[in-house]
Amino acid sequence: MKAFRPEFIFLSAGFDAHRADPIGDLALSSEDFGRITRAILDVARTSCEGRVVSVLEGGYAPSAVAAGGRLPRGRNDHRCGRQAPSKNWRE
């Protein structure tokens, strides 16, 4: 990622792979999705100043989509104050 030098990471967040999804077959838990999201945020922090665009796509289990759409808690919790864009961000 550092060699590629992205300006941001676009995360297309679909939850068809959740174990509650009647069509998907991957059986991931909500915790699995949280770990994946935290890993992406870690990469974003070191490769593109933490910029991530996350789009919720859906799935076929409404409770899994609702759970997956929440931001992960902990050191990557950005709900309590957003970092201002860097001065070199292109508009």
Give a description of the structure.
The structure is a single chain. By secondary structure, this protein is of the alpha+beta class. The chain is built from two helices and two strands. A two-stranded parallel sheet has the order 1-2. Strand 1, helix 1 and strand 2 form a beta-alpha-beta unit. It is elongated, with a radius of gyration of 15 Å.
List the helices and strands and how they pair.
Elements: E1 9-14, H1 30-47, E2 52-58, H2 62-68
Parallel strand pairs: 1-2
Distance between the termini: 22 Å
- The portion of residues forming beta strands comes to 5-15%
Integer-rounded radius of gyration: 15 Å
Count of individual helical segments: 2
- Secondary structure: helix percent: 25-40%
- How much is the average pLDDT? 78
Taken in chain order, the helices and strands follow as EHEH
What is the SS-derived class? alpha+beta
Total beta strands: 2
Spans of at least 5 consecutive residues whose pLDDT stays below 50 are 73-85
Q: Largest sheet, if any?
A: 2 strands, parallel
Q: Biggest sheet, strands in spatial order?
A: 1-2
The global form is: elongated
